[in-house]
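Researcher: Please generate the 3D structure of the following complex. Treat every line as part of one assembly.
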Amino acid sequence: MNYNILTYCIYLPIIAVIMVKVGWMFYTHGEIFLLHLYKQDESIVKPINNLLLTGYYLTNLGYAIITLAYWEKVNNITEMLSTLSEHLGIIIIGLAVLHYNNVLCLNYLVKTKTLNNKSK
Amino acid sequence: MENSKIIIGYLIYLPIVIILTIYVSKMLFKNGKYFMLDIFKGQEDIALATNKLFEIGFYLINIGWALLILKISYNSRHEMSSQTLIEILSMKIGGFSIYLGVMLFINLFFFFRGRRKSRQSFKKVTNTPIYNVREEQ
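Model: Done. Output below.
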């Protein structure tokens, strides 16, 4: 049991909890936007939302797991903390960027939709 | 027993990958059924059959690929440490998971495309009153 394995054991639960929580929040709150876009058509929104959630989990957790393969060598506790915070920070900032991008896209789509409906 | 770590690696890798594939394809095609019903306009037998065929294809491609990338090659004189094993496994499982996610999105894209195409042809051929009512909502 060296420091690297200990770091992995701390890193994986933290990142899993963050990703599952964030994904679940996107799932519940994004459904309202999708309902708006698909004219309240519940039967098609539910499957789309489920599939998007699954895809999100697969790609993000896959990326989080793959970073283990490129982890630098950890020698003591201070190094462990610094590398841990660095890797967690990269992933969380990436999530934030993706999230803002998504919100902007959704906002744009909803706006064009309402404009089109008004002009009809 | 110099290869025992590699065998442990295989024994961890295989169940994870196969369960992941089965779960994802169950999820994908349980939800894909609604798309198919939409595309084939309620002809249930054709929609379900197409869905099943897609599902079989998905299984074959993904499990085949998972088995193809199974091999762990480790050429070093030292015995493999458990840290190296964890790193190699994370590489393989993480990579496979991302690949599966991309496949899922490609499938979703095909569903959307089929749905849009079928709607367009529907609009051109028969402009029924029922469709207009749905459009105005």
